[in-house]
Amino acid sequence: MLRFFIIGLGGAIGSLLRYIMGGLDYRFSNDVFPISTLIVNVTGSLVIGLLWGVIDRFAISPNARLFIFIGVLGGYTTFSAFSLETFSLMRDGEYRIAVINMALSVALSIGAVFVGYIASKALMNLFK
Fold it and tell me: Phi-psi bin for 58: left (phi > 0), alpha (psi -120 to 50), beta?
């Protein structure tokens, strides 16, 4: 039960940070380019890389890992997990699998957004 609280607390913090970053779209790009999403994805990836490097060298409790990686960074961006997994594949020399992971993740995720959008429009038309 404690793990759920730890993850939830971290997730709340990460989600609030994400919300704060969302304001950048309106301040700096007039909502033309999703700058906040780009910043969140890149900074989340940077932070997860930095912290993963620290964990390789220093012992960090399992609860602290849950709080940081699943909670805070999971609430902030899931792109950081994708980036870390892809980096790990490349670091281990699994370049082919890393490229497949990148291509599938991007293409299928964008495709899923498209399918979800079309499905929502179709469902809304049913209930007019």
Answer: beta
CA distances from 103 to 44, 51, 86, 99, 100 (A): 20, 26, 11, 6, 5
- Residue the block writes with tokens 């607390």: 9
Q: Tell me the domain boundaries of the chain.
A: 2-78, 94-128
**In the chain, % of residues over pLDDT 70:** 93
Q: What is the pLDDT of residues 3-59, one digit of tens each?
A: 999 999 999 999 999 998 877 766 776 666 677 888 888 888 899 888 888 887 788
Q: What is the largest CA-CA distance in the chain?
A: 59
Amino acid at 24: L
Question: Degrees (nearest 5) of the Cα angle 87, 50, 93?
Answer: 20
pTM for the model stands at 0.72
3 state SS of 119: helix
User: 15 CB contacts (<8 Å, ≥6 apart)?
Assistant: 75, 76
Cα angle 66-68-72, degrees, rounded to a multiple of 5: 110
